[in-house]
């Protein structure tokens, strides 16, 4: 029985990860017998859907394969408290050679050990992050293993928490501890974060911008995953699917998944199935990527984007201002904001383009829908 091995959800590790071989090799080199210290602090940046979270997971996998311990976290408030109250006490209890942790029962809350357990004197809440990391890395050193901390969406982190964590990472470097840190985030906010005095340590990280993958790699991923799913795909259908993906890693999973789902008969996946799959993929991209990205924007931000939408390729900034009926200087303020938010990007002198495929189509469709709703309200 054939399966559908495409994984059309954010952050899920794909069946085939293509176009990132060199980077994954670097991750593995970092944790081999002769450590590459340059890879012990890395920063991944890119636009939505480029696979930053998947690559952060690749870093985790490389570390775990070498026996290192990994703490995987998000950038939400309370990061340091979660590290000192939950993650590190768990690992210390298991890996430290000091006296075992004492556990006492508590009320019905779910603690780090489940079922109402709580930590007592061995690791009190006020225990510092630095002392816990020091103890854990000391315990791991004889075996040649270390500790990795990964943080996704780091651009949203509390800057003071990030500063404190950065100080400890830097102390670890000076003390030659086996301590690694990896983070991922959106391109433009990351650039702004790097300019903040509280993120000094990130400026010393190995920074890897993550972009689109080549058409050849898109074809290889689609064809390989379909083959491993027990099916084949018509060569022309494969070309149509690869063109629709437009180098956008998340779309590989969406187009592949929905094309297989649409193919109901025996034999190779057809152009008809791929066409139906692309339509479904674009709808899903709209719901899960375009809508959340556009929702927080101001009405003028959206107006700027709508002024870009008539263009099939990059838009000229002067033409955008003309369509908006404003000065180039006024439109330029919104251009800078939208670039900062990762919605658009520079595309040469005086030009901008959308960072996510099919954004223009999404805007045109929804603008038409909203206009029809407005007419219906006027007629009622």
Can you put this structure into words, describing what you see?
With 380 residues, the protein is α/β, with parallel strands linked by helices. The chain has 3 domains: 21-98 and 128-210, P-loop containing nucleotide triphosphate hydrolases (Rossmann fold, 3-Layer(aba) Sandwich), CATH 3.40.50.300; 215-293, Helicase, Ruva Protein, domain 3 (Orthogonal Bundle), CATH 1.10.8; 299-379, Winged helix-like DNA-binding domain superfamily/Winged helix DNA-binding domain (Arc Repressor Mutant, subunit A, Orthogonal Bundle). It is 52% helix and 12% strand. The protein has 15 helices and 10 strands. The chain has helices spanning 21-30, 52-65, 79-95, 129-140, 159-174, 187-194, 200-203, 215-228, 235-245, 249-262, 271-294, 299-308, 317-324, 328-340, 359-379; strands at 41-46, 69-74, 103-105, 117-119, 147-152, 179-186, 206-210, 315-316, 344-346, 351-354. The strands form 3 sheets. A 5-stranded parallel β-sheet has the order 2-5-6-1-7, with helices on both faces. It has a 3-stranded antiparallel β-sheet with strand order 8-10-9. The chain has a two-stranded antiparallel sheet with strand order 3-4. β5 (147-152), α5 and β6 form a beta-alpha-beta unit. α10 (249-262) packs across α11 (271-294) and α13 packs across α14 (328-340). The termini are far apart. The model is unreliable at 99-121, 123-127 and 371-380 (pLDDT under 50).
């Amino acid at each position: 029985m054939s399966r559908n091995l495409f994984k059309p959800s954010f952050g899920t590790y794909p069946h085939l990860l293509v176009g990132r071989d060199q980077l994954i090799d670097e991750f593995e080199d970092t944790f081999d017998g002769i450590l590459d210290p340059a890879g012990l602090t890395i920063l991944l940046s890119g636009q939505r859907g480029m696979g930053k979270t998947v690559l952060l997971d690749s870093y985790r996998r490389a570390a775990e394969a070498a026996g290192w311990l990994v703490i995987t976290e998000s950038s939400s408030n309370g990061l340091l408290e979660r590290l000192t109250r939950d993650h590190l006490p768990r690992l210390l209890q298991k890996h430290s050679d000091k006296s075992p942790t004492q556990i006492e029962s508590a009320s019905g809350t779910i603690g780090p050990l489940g079922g109402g357990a709580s930590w007592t004197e061995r690791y009190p809440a006020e225990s510092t992050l630095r002392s816990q990391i020091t103890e854990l890395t000391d315990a791991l050193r004889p075996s040649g293993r270390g500790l990795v901390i990964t943080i996704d969406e780091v651009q949203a982190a509390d800057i003071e928490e990030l500063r404190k964590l950065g100080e400890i990472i830097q102390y670890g470097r000076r003390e030659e501890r086996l301590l690694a840190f990896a983070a991922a985030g959106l391109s433009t906010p990351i650039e702004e974060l790097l300019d903040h005095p509280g993120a000094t340590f990130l400026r010393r990280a190995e920074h890897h911008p993550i972009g689109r993958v080549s058409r050849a790699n898109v074809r290889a991923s689609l064809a390989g995953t379909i083959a491993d799913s027990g099916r084949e795909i018509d060569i022309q259908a494969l070309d149509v699917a690869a063109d629709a993906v437009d180098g956008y890693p998340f779309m590989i999973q969406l187009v592949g998944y929905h094309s297989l789902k649409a193919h109901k008969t025996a034999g190779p996946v057809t152009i008809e199935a791929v066409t139906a799959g692309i339509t479904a993929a674009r709808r899903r991209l709209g719901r899960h990527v375009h809508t959340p990205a556009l929702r927080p924007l101001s009405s003028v931000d959206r107006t700027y984007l709508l002024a870009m939408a008539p263009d099939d390729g990059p838009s000229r900034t002067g033409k955008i201002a003309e369509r908006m009926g404003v000065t180039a200087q006024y439109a330029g303020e919104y251009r800078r904001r939208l670039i900062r938010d990762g919605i658009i990007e520079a595309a040469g002198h005086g030009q901008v383009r959308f960072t996510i495929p099919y954004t223009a189509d999404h805007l045109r469709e929804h603008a038409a829908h909203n206009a029809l709703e407005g007419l219906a309200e006027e007629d009622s």
